[in-house]
Amino acid sequence: MKTEVMHSTWIPAVILGGLSIALLASEGVAAPPPQALQSIHRDCARSVLDQGNPPQCLRASSVPTLGQLYPLGIAFSVDPDGNTSAAGEVESREGGFRFPDGTVQITAAPFGGTAGRIPISQADIPLTISAPGSYVVVEPLSGVSGFDGILITSDDVTLDLNGFSLSGGAGTLDGIRITSSPSRGVLLQNGILRDWGGDGVDAAGGEASEHALTLRDLTVIANTGNGIRAGSVVDVHACRAEANGSIGIQVGGRCVVEGNESRANGSHGIQTENSCSIRDNFVWDHPSGTGIRVIGGATVVLDNLIGQCATGVEVTGSYQCFVARNAANFCTTAFSAPSGVGTVASDPSSALPWGNLKIDP
């Protein structure tokens, strides 16, 4: 990853080859004269020069050790004015750079890279994103009572939780809320939303609100409301909704809900409106609700595994649906739809190729 090395006091740096790096003097100590820097630099062919007192070579680790540079292998030079030039890339593992005095600079980007993206830290919460851009979380985040965690009011936003959690608590609202408006073009991905007083993700609006929203690799756990709630034109991929107070995943029409897990939520596992593709999901433990519920029709419900629900798959509208190759295990009612349901059998061999499988409790 490309980053700036920050330690104590800055002195000028220049940028070559896309790398910005600053080499510095220790706190309260003046930088050595340029001639001294040039002399010392000759001994630092594969290392960063820490301009402390005395100046030292900060050598790269031979293995990707936490908190050290790896690999370096780039060319440095110092001009007569003391400006340091670098061509190439500096990479770091999560934890920053370790300096010879034992201190560790932790403002370096986490492993995986944040170059060109706008960082979000705890000091920013609660946060409103009101401009397009690519945003990345750089540490675990906690909510503030009376507020959403992150409110998105702009089109064309990518928000990467970067594997971190965004946690709520008493009195909090939604984890991430997206205001209702057509064609938002928002991508949310790669993190955990838990313990919010409202929904984990709230982009509500139903069929009339076209969000053009993509949710990917999110885990939404133990939120008071829904795990995920969104309007129409929404893709939900590889998300996990568990132990939320209401519906695990609730979206409007013209949606794609594929490859998700929904377990032990207070109401239904997955609920959609018209014209959706609901495929390859695992839905379990909704004893008072429906595993997969379609309010409307013109929807494909294919290759899902549902278990321990009051109803496995339910279609409430009059439009034709295609419900096939699903398995409903230990549900009071396996399939409930006015039309479009493939043959329901208890023997897998007789259910194939387009039938559904029912295993009675």
Radius of gyration: 27 Å
Query: How is the quaternary structure best described?
Result: single chain
Residue share in helix: under 10%
What gap, in angstroms, lies between the N and C termini?
54 Å
Number of helices: 2
What overall form do the CA principal axes indicate? elongated
Q: Mean pLDDT, as a whole number?
A: 76
The figure for the number of domains is 2
CATH class of the largest domain, named Mainly Beta
Tell me about this structure.
The chain has 361 residues and is mainly β. It has two domains: 15-105, no CATH class; 118-359, 3 Solenoid (Pectate Lyase C-like). 3% of the residues lie in helices and 40% in strands. It has a 27-stranded parallel sheet that branches. Strands 1-2 form a two-stranded antiparallel ribbon. Strands 3-4 form a two-stranded antiparallel sheet. Helix 2 links the parallel strand 34 and strand 35. The longest helix has 8 residues, at 34-41. It is elongated. The relative contact order is 0.06. Mean pLDDT is 76; it is low at 1-78 and 82-112.
Short summary:
With 361 residues, the chain is mostly beta strands. Helices cover 3% and strands 40% of the residues. The protein folds into two domains: 15-105, no CATH class; 118-359, Single-stranded right-handed beta-helix, Pectin lyase-like (Pectate Lyase C-like, 3 Solenoid), CATH 2.160.20.
Secondary structure: elements and pairs:
Layout: E1 15-16, E2 19-20, H1 34-41, E3 47-50, E4 56-59, E5 75-78, E6 84-87, E7 97-98, E8 104-105, E9 118-120, E10 127-129, E11 133-137, E12 141-142, E13 150-152, E14 157-160, E15 165-167, E16 176-178, E17 186-194, E18 201-203, E19 210-221, E20 228-230, E21 232-237, E22 240-242, E23 249-250, E24 256-258, E25 261-263, E26 270-272, E27 277-279, E28 282-294, E29 300-302, E30 305-315, E31 322-324, E32 327-329, E33 333-336, E34 344-345, H2 348-351, E35 356-359
Parallel strand pairs: 9-11, 10-13, 11-14, 12-15, 13-16, 14-17, 15-17, 16-18, 17-19, 18-20, 19-21, 19-22, 20-23, 21-24, 22-25, 23-26, 24-27, 25-28, 26-28, 27-29, 28-30, 29-31, 30-32, 30-33, 32-35, 34-35
Antiparallel strand pairs: 1-2, 3-4, 5-6, 7-8
